[in-house]
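job 3f2a | input accepted
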Amino acid sequence: MAQDPAVALRPEYLEWLRRLDAERRYGERDRRGSANLIGERAGARALRSIDRGVTVTISRPLIEGSSRRGDGRPSYGLEVFYTEGPIGMGSDHVELDCHGMDNTHLDALNHLAIDGRWYGGWAVEEADPPSVDDVAGEGIFTRAVHLDIAALRATPWVDPDRPVTGDDLEAAASASGADLEPGDALLVDMGRDRWEAAGGPGAPALPGIGEDGARWIAEHEVGILCWDFLDAVHPSEPVAPVHMLNWALGLLLCDNCDFSRLRAPMTGRASAALVIAPLPMRGATGCNVNPLLIL
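job 3f2a | predicted structure (295 res):
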């Protein structure tokens, strides 16, 4: 049985989310959410951020095995087979988990529902709700600002007992040297790679952004949020406070990023260009992606 959202999210937070949803920032039954903020101006800012022509991926490597979601399906499975003939042919069949804590992926706007509705008022029973395909047509090309929360706190990773707040995000944005503008991508670096290398402690607390940080994000017209840890898992926090902005605002999320390759190249830089090109899968609730930063 599905959990009552009022219990999972707490009444006051759920009420705030419903108010954001009722605003319909991009119009009734919109299909693109925060992608509406990513247009020519955001693209021009991205171009001005490129001065070296160097590319850096922020994708996690795909590792074969069972998904940590515990649903019995693989996180990533690859079958390579060979077909005999005058010209031999190698082929592949790939199975990917487009959600969860393993693979780097984009959340579409039919990923989370409250009150039987997806983002924008689309009923879950409708045949053609917003999906990955609505973002794939133009892809994502925008300026990206790296917010290094772990460095700000002078720790290898964010403390599980101190969820990331709006003040943390504001301070990191100021430290980046970039003036945030509508449609910018936020790269929120909480040190997950170091945490995992150290054998992170796991449940019941998990590092991430809390309710206060989610409220800050909602105020700043973010085009897409790319993050390594996700929502804080902590007794003081509602369930998935930032993910619920996907429902309330149509916020695009690129989950499970890896910033280990990016930190050194971003030293002394305010921003870079971000490119994400999801596959045009009509109806899909998510898509595995390889986000690239161009410096």
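job 3f2a | Residues 70-100 form one domain.
job 3f2a | closed
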